[in-house]
Design a protein that fits this description.
8-stranded parallel beta barrel; TIM Barrel; two-stranded antiparallel sheet; alpha/beta; globular; single chain; 13% strand
Length: 342
């Protein structure tokens, strides 16, 4: 296996993609809306990918709810943005945590039915006034302790449903005044402030199996490189201060926050300490560049990958109909699902 996760272009693999996947051997596949043409076709795409790489490779998706939901009506239910759980938490801590856990457990059931086994949530970003809205209502709140508590409940719901959670965007995207999809955010807050707020939200979640980096410069720690390509951030903040010992993957290296060729970005992320590089857009020329620059998965990175996958287990029994009714009851007076959901 090579140390990268890839996307593909559409709802079915092309001949060229099959050959590429067989030769390049990415660690996993990430699914986007462009890959979704209904339940049956998506399941076939996942089976095709695993057949091409010759193993039961991880399949990832961003299925948070709200604005970030790759699967939605009419084939799948809609789910609320993270801020809804935060609002419920403010009314009653137990209520908010229960809703977060049940919502994530239902998402897990949707995903396992398709063969997807990794969901890129929870997020532990702590937004501040004036920040770019790219996080916005995806966040669970503005207090680190609250964010961590809701994130832990969501992670538990996923794990109970047989899905590995990916903690993002470590060590924090909440202060960013730019959308890292388009440009490079620079955060000038002092280290002590970051430790007490942004980083503090991630610390209680350090035992989660996988985390995704933030394409954000923290100038008080590394004035030039974003966290994804900063050895100082990965080593001194993510690994040491936050204490995350699990599998560390980059955010999408094709995003506008990073500079250089795709090969240079890939090598920089790996050199900084990322175990895996994520490339999402399914453009074959870029995929080849990332694959050529990504090393074989070996050493500590391979060990962390194996440890992460070992944390996945069979879903705990659940009455889906009853759980969905309970979820709708918990959220009824603050959120309504989209019309036409399954």
């Amino acid at each position: 296996m090579r140390a990268f996760i890839t996307g593909v272009a559409g709802p079915a693999l092309t001949v060229e993609e099959r050959q590429f996947l067989s030769e390049a051997q990415p660690w996993g596949l990430i699914v986007f809306t462009r890959n979704v043409a209904g339940r049956g076709p998506l399941r076939r795409l996942i089976d095709e990918f695993r057949a091409a790489v010759g193993r039961d490779a991880p399949i990832l998706i961003d299925q948070e709810g709200g604005r970030v939901q790759r699967l939605g009506p009419p084939d799948w239910p809609s789910y609320p943005p993270g801020a809804i759980y935060g609002a419920l938490f403010d009314r009653d801590r137990a209520l908010g945590l229960a809703a977060a856990r049940v919502g994530a457990r239902l998402i897990a059931a949707d995903l396992t039915a398709l063969g997807i086994d990794v969901d890129c949530m929870p997020i532990a970003d702590v937004p501040v006034p004036g920040a770019d809205p790219v996080i916005g209502d995806r966040a669970y709140g503005v207090r680190p302790d609250k964010v961590a508590a809701v994130a832990a409940a969501i992670a538990q719901g996923l794990v109970d449903g047989g899905i590995l959670p990916v903690l993002k965007h470590i060590p924090g995207h909440g202060r960013a005044t730019a959308d890292s999809h388009r440009g490079l955010p620079i955060v000038d807050a002092e280290r002590a402030t970051l430790e007490a707020t942004d980083f503090a939200a991630f610390r209680p979640l350090a035992a989660l199996p996988i985390a995704m980096t933030a394409h954000v410069v923290f100038s008080s720690i590394d004035p030039t490189a974003p966290a994804t390509t900063s050895m100082s951030i990965v080593r001194d903040v993510i690994r040491d201060s936050i204490g995350f010992k699990g599998l560390l993957m980059s955010d999408d290296v094709s995003m506008g926050a990073l500079s250089g060729t795709l090969s240079e970005r890939t090598r920089a992320a790996i050199a900084a300490g990322c175990d895996l590089v994520l490339h999402c857009n399914g453009e074959m020329q870029e995929m080849r560049m990332v694959a050529a620059a990504a090393p074989m998965l070996a050493g500590d990175a391979a060990r962390r990958a194996s440890s992460a996958l070992a944390m996945k287990h069979e879903p705990a029994p659940i009455d889906i109909v009853a759980a969905r009714a309970e979820f709708l009851r918990l959220t009824a007076d603050i959120w309504q699902p989209a019309e036409g959901c399954a």
